[in-house]
Specification:
Structural class: alpha+beta
Strand order of the largest sheet: 1-2-3
Radius of gyration: 11 Å
Helix content: 40-55%
Number of helices: 2
Strand content: 15-25%
Number of domains: 1
Oligomer: single chain
Shape: globular
Number of strands: 3
Length: 60
């Protein structure tokens, strides 16, 4: 996922809306929590916890 795109989604949708969008992009994981350190610095990865598996995104 593109870093700028992810940041823009948070800016427009808020953190809850961003999490909802991640659940649409990556169905079946039932994501319920997302890390926020990546938003301040792209050296961090995005980690999202889900009841059916976790998601880790690296930036392109």
């Amino acid at each position: 996922m593109d870093y700028g795109f992810a940041k823009t989604m948070v800016d427009v949708l808020g953190w809850d809306g961003f999490l909802e969008r991640l659940n649409i992009f990556f169905p079946g994981k039932d994501l319920f929590e997302v890390s926020q350190d990546w938003y301040k610095d792209m050296k961090y990865v995005l980690k999202a916890r889900g009841s059916q598996g976790d998601l880790i995104l690296y930036w392109s």
